[in-house]
Amino acid sequence: MNALIDHRLRRSWTEGAAGAAPLPARAARWLDQRIGPVVPGGAPAGDMPVKIPSPKLAKPAEEALAKVVGAENVLVDDPARLARATGLSYLDLLRRRSPSADFPVPDAVVLPADPDEVQAVLDACVQHDVGVVPFGGGTSVVGGVAALRGEKTSVIALDLVRLDALVSVDAESRIAVLQAGVRGPEAERLLAGHGLTLGHVPQSFERATIGGFAATRSAGQASSGYGRFEDMVTGVRLATPRGPWKLGVAPASAAGPDLRQLAIGSEGTLGVITEVALRVRPAPPVRRYEGYALPGWAAGAEAVRDLAQHHALADVTRLSDVDETEVSLALNAGLKTAALRRYLAARGVRRPCFLIVGWEGTAHDVALRRRETARRLKASGAVRVGKALGESWRHGRFAGPRQRDTLLDMGVCVETLETAAYWSNVDELRDDVRAALTASLGRSIVMCHISHAYETGASLYFTVLTARDETDSVGQWQRAKAAACEAIAGLGTISHHHAVGVDHAPYLSAEIGSLGVEVLRAAKSTVDPTGILNPGKLV
Amino acid sequence: MNALIDHRLRRSWTEGAAGAAPLPARAARWLDQRIGPVVPGGAPAGDMPVKIPSPKLAKPAEEALAKVVGAENVLVDDPARLARATGLSYLDLLRRRSPSADFPVPDAVVLPADPDEVQAVLDACVQHDVGVVPFGGGTSVVGGVAALRGEKTSVIALDLVRLDALVSVDAESRIAVLQAGVRGPEAERLLAGHGLTLGHVPQSFERATIGGFAATRSAGQASSGYGRFEDMVTGVRLATPRGPWKLGVAPASAAGPDLRQLAIGSEGTLGVITEVALRVRPAPPVRRYEGYALPGWAAGAEAVRDLAQHHALADVTRLSDVDETEVSLALNAGLKTAALRRYLAARGVRRPCFLIVGWEGTAHDVALRRRETARRLKASGAVRVGKALGESWRHGRFAGPRQRDTLLDMGVCVETLETAAYWSNVDELRDDVRAALTASLGRSIVMCHISHAYETGASLYFTVLTARDETDSVGQWQRAKAAACEAIAGLGTISHHHAVGVDHAPYLSAEIGSLGVEVLRAAKSTVDPTGILNPGKLV
């Protein structure tokens, strides 16, 4: 069967968001100098024909599903199936541009209305032995939503988009229950009606969902203040092939192991998360973001460590390395770059690392905490750059993913990867990953930042740009990614907030032991004895 | 065989600690009025003969164990076995006084020297099908260390007392690795050598161990500042029947579910914790404790909630209800009670609830945080009582368990139980548990306090005193405890920090679902296929 991979699918990040982010001409020139030649203007290819296999869902299965959710909520048309075929990693984007025979496409898209319907869908899928890929925002960059069928003849994408409700608010306990399909902005809009906020703003915020955040142990840009997503979760409700499962009756417990922490991060393999009870906070009347510059990476990382270990982190605390800072300086039209360079040089900062700090809360709280952070930063040799840098970062903070299609059009290979380590490993880990990427890719730009800091360590987030090798574009990145993962293993975690999916599964046993993988498999066999849930992911 | 249950065993809490805590005469008089008649002077019974079964450990097993740890570290004498027979719940203390036929006694006590020997002991126990009860401080109050043998013919107590080392300190990452057998005071002493502290001070501090804290999800009195024990754990090393298992490579991770949180709270059923990597902090140069009084429980709980939800909790934040406060006022010789009552009444506080707040850190930090706490407490209607109350609590904070033997000698039934709930359930839960206990016990004193507060809820800790029913002293408490547990189920967790053990196991599936229990069993079958680990506990 032929279908069109249309513009919407190819450039799907921009769907429903604030629009694509084109690259300024100066950025294109700069890229050309650094990793060129690149195609300066870029040009999105038009719609293109693609062969996708016919749906393999057996008629009785399709009828059983239709009986649960209504025939209009079982989609078997090609555009619907293609749109839930993969996530949004660089390799996913490449595959969308040139789908090969193994491009995974679900046999149907099923749209349940509520947790009970999710349960009934799973029951039907158990009965008809159909694989189920839970699908939220579809923003996985590790293959977490690829429509793999494993041993199953057919697989559905279980799209949770209709689970879009704020179920309840317990203002006294500061807990809100949100359904799994609620996206970031909608969650904030719903909570704002009660004067509340969740404060979870990962870069995928515009599209990703509450269920996805929980399933992947997401961490948002304000994690220093609001915590990682798992810190916000007080309870989860799942549908499993063995029936409903609800966890979380108190803020903390010693009633055996914390099984919430087993459900969180289970990536759809231990059940479909249908509702999440979340700690919420009053919507902050004041938001203040500003920028500092530190003299080099070592000084910058030390300053962030000092803040983390003295409980003086701002809610957003994000340190760019020299390379990432140079890119900001080269590309950011909003900064008077030359003047800023002179200003910093006069204060002894010749190779600056930008530090973004942002506080949210009451005026009293922000003032109090900002004073402490500023006091410590000054002692660490940081030079204040001012509000413009902070606000500039805040306004552009979701733009990264939206620029990727443009960069791909220009012939650029662009991808990110991330890890976290204890402080004593952070510098070595950064060096090793950079070296591994550069050795694999040759001429390239490798930037790094810390965006999540803890008393005992920090995350490291790498952005990589290089000219795409058109003869082997997939292999080019696969080799670089493998080299980076090898460098990470032993020094840090294979993922701080992107999850495991397909891409990191080979590295999981090095991190949690083969016994750990066996324990996860045993948990999965218990709740999903016939293995219908998200085949081929995590374990 | 006959053995003597000697003084040391009967009153074993006091062993190695700061000595028994006798009750002042005034306290005895007061108890007599409230729940009497009680035996005023009390009188510890002398040593008493007791029949305990001969060790059932087969010769080949004993030889295999002796080969691992040396014959001198396989103890089969009665005093050694009796000392590791049970924990220290009220029912355990009763059973120690009048051991019945089903008093559980291990067949041997094995004392490995290090994690490798622990592994080798487990290997030998798998080979000879011997049950293993990991034994740390022996302070479980839920039957967690009872030497039950389950299906096994013989069972050993695996005493970790020789795993007493500080393995490593990573000052930069603020992580210290401690062996499982290190007791609270020794942990602090070892860390103090590096200018560090753990800050974990549960009431069992004097005897309980690092491994036990991890195995039971312990929470210390300063949990508002230092966190619960699981918040401190960055990594765990376990010995399991399937081999060694190590978890924790980074401060946070999205590499699947957090299996550390499965190991923590596993109560010896998923492996023997041999080492724990812990987040540590600089030893605080300043410690400041003081007391406030709030006008009644509702106002007190509101004030604590206000602090928790505004990130203004002191490191120690502990609110007594009116009954507990009355007991303090009646018994505490250090306070000028009548004058204090007048002082409070003049400020509108006629039914006071004492609030202890304590900060630890640098002078700057303590001053800054104390100002915020005080500001909010004032707005909540709290009246400052001063340093004496805080210091008095601090100095007596480990005395409770040490007074139990004295109270038992006096014919008093004394026990504690605890739970936690979301704020909107806290008051109802307290009322229901009090009502259940009082209905079951009749004339009694039931006190309650909040000692651990979170943004979304708080713990509730109950202390119960009643005249012991000598005709059915075990049944008297079992019925009261069951009534309290029934009241808890549905409103809170069956344990906030005492764990599950034997006593709470019947209530676990109501909390985590039968699916949750099955998942735990599946995890156990994976790491412990022949079921040697801590038979009869948790699941």
Protein model, in words:
- The two termini of chain A are 33 Å apart.
- The first copy, chain A, is built from 20 helices and 20 strands.
- The first copy, chain A, is of the alpha+beta class.
- About 3% of the residues of chain A have low confidence.
- The relative contact order of chain A is 0.13.
- In chain A, the strands form five sheets. The first copy, chain A, has a seven-stranded antiparallel beta sheet with strand order 17-14-16-15-19-20-18, sandwiched between helices.
- Chains A and B meet through strand 11, helix 11, helix 15, strand 18 and helix 18 of A and strand 11, helix 11, helix 15, strand 18 and helix 18 of B.
What tags apply to this protein structure?
five-stranded antiparallel beta sheet, alpha+beta, 539 residues, 20 helices
In short:
With 539 residues, the first copy, chain A, is of the alpha+beta class.
Question: What is the secondary structure topology, with strand pairs?
Answer:
Two copies of one chain form a homodimer.
Chain A: E1 2-5, H1 7-10, H2 25-35, E2 48-51, H3 59-69, E3 74-75, H4 78-83, H5 90-97, E4 108-110, H6 115-128, E5 131-135, E6 155-159, E7 166-170, E8 175-179, H7 184-192, E9 196-197, H8 210-216, H9 223-226, H10 229-232, E10 233-240, E11 243-247, H11 260-263, E12 272-279, E13 281-282, E14 286-295, H12 297-309, E15 316-320, H13 322-331, H14 337-346, E16 352-361, H15 363-379, E17 383-386, H16 387-396, H17 399-409, E18 412-422, H18 423-441, E19 444-450, E20 457-467, H19 473-488, H20 505-527
Parallel strand pairs in A: 4-6, 5-6
Antiparallel strand pairs in A: 1-2, 3-4, 7-8, 8-12, 9-13, 10-11, 10-12, 14-16, 14-17, 15-16, 15-19, 18-20, 19-20
